[in-house]
Design a protein that fits this description.
single chain, alpha/beta, Isopropylmalate Dehydrogenase, ten-stranded mixed beta sheet, two-stranded antiparallel sheet, about 25% strand, globular, binds 3-isopropylmalic acid, binds magnesium ion
């Protein structure tokens, strides 16, 4: 029988709480499903380790992770460490080092969940976020620190190869969806170099996908479309920062940040891909036992899909939806259930 070797990196805050639930769910599922086994190896990399050793992860971290079939990641971020240090200490080196250039962020209003939008049931989107370059390339610097003439630069780096591969990925994904519709989101009216390259390459790639309908919306305008005309959107492709912002909006419109999952994919499978809930470490609710595990469960379903276990992936989604339709909700969704209650209900529904 196939054994999937999964690296778990719970990280910080509620990341530790929800990943424990995800592991529980997946072990239980493997037991019931019977077609595969899972074996988790846990890595205690996070802000505690940083505060003790000044390193989020060991120097050979990527070598250690390379052999795994996938990575299940919780969250990184601590009130005791500046956010740019934690992010660049753990999550970004993995995304960039493993060339996980396609960040996939689905959103949908699950049964029983209330959207702040009247027509929220129309939301069925997948945002494809470029995940290795652009505004997050880390290129730039500070000169004359602390002096009145100090300057800082933050350079977005867009490569033709990087743009082309994420567009190709987005077209492939759009093609597999019912509506086969892909919206290109840029800001090429104001950002006249990198974003114009995005537009040009998009239409070059589009030539190979005559079956996918496309349109192009500027990033500011697409926020109004998301709120007012959700049905006009299906698959969306955008740069690292733009898609970061849009995916938080998408999560809020679909009911809660506590349900939104994400996959950081290396589509060529040269390196392991990484799966994580998008909510972050949420220190305000850490340790209270009320973190919503649904985002992690949905994330686990995406991981199973990627591993080639579509039946198990669908089974997890069905169990999630059966629990949300019964409104067994943690406080972020307006309920009083605790993390453990939601997990027990989802496992019960498997
Ligand atoms: C996300 C998060 C991260 C990002 C933060 C934690 C830096 O907001 O995954 O969307 O911006 O990439
Ligand atoms: Mg974000």
């Amino acid at each position: 029988m196939k054994t999937w070797h999964i690296a778990s990196i719970p990280g910080d805050g509620i990341g530790i709480e929800v990943i424990a639930e995800g592991v529980k769910l997946l072990e239980e599922l493997a037991r019931r499903e019977g077609g595969f086994r899972v074996e988790f190896t846990r890595f205690d990399w996070g802000s505690e380790r940083y505060l003790e050793t000044e390193q989020y992860m060991p120097v050979d971290a990527l070598d250690q992770l390379k052999a795994f079939d996938a990575i299940l990641f919780g969250a990184v971020g601590s009130p005791r460490v500046p956010d740019h240090i934690s992010l660049w200490g753990l999550r970004l080196p993995i995304c960039q080092g493993f060339d996980q250039y396609a960040n996939v962020r689905p959103s949908r209003v699950l049964p029983g969940v209330e959207s702040p939008l009247r027509n929220g049931h129309e939301i069925d989107w997948v945002i494809v976020r470029e995940n290795t370059e652009g505004e997050y390339s880390g290129s730039g610097g500070r000169v004359h620190r602390g002096l009145p003439e100090e300057i800082a630069t933050e350079t977005s780096v867009f490569t033709r190869a990087g743009v082309e591969r994420v567009h190709r990925f987005a077209f492939e994904l759009a093609r597999k969806r019912k509506r086969k519709h892909l919206t290109l989101v840029t800001k090429s009216n104001a950002q006249r170099h990198g974003m114009v390259l995005w537009d040009e390459v998009f239409y070059e790639v589009a030539g190979n996908y005559p079956d996918v309908r496309t349109d192009r919306v500027l990033v500011d305008a697409v926020t109004t479309r998301m709120v007012l005309k959700p049905a006009l959107l299906d698959t969306i492709v955008a740069s690292n920062l733009h898609a970061d912002i849009l995916s938080d909006l998408a999560a809020a419109l679909s009911g809660s940040l506590g349900i939104a999952p994400t996959a950081n994919l290396n589509p060529e499978r040269k390196f392991p891909s990484m799966f994580e809930p998008i909510h972050g470490s949420a220190f305000d609710i850490t340790g209270k036992g009320i973190a919503n595990p649904i985002a992690t469960f949905w994330t686990v379903s995406m991981m199973l899909e990627h591993l080639g276990e579509p039946r198990a992936a669908a089974r997890v989604m069905q169990a999630i939806e059966s629990v949300t339709s019964r409104r067994i909700f943690t406080p972020d969704l307006g309920g009083t259930a605790r993390t453990a209650d939601v997990t027990a209900a989802v496992i019960g529904a498997l």
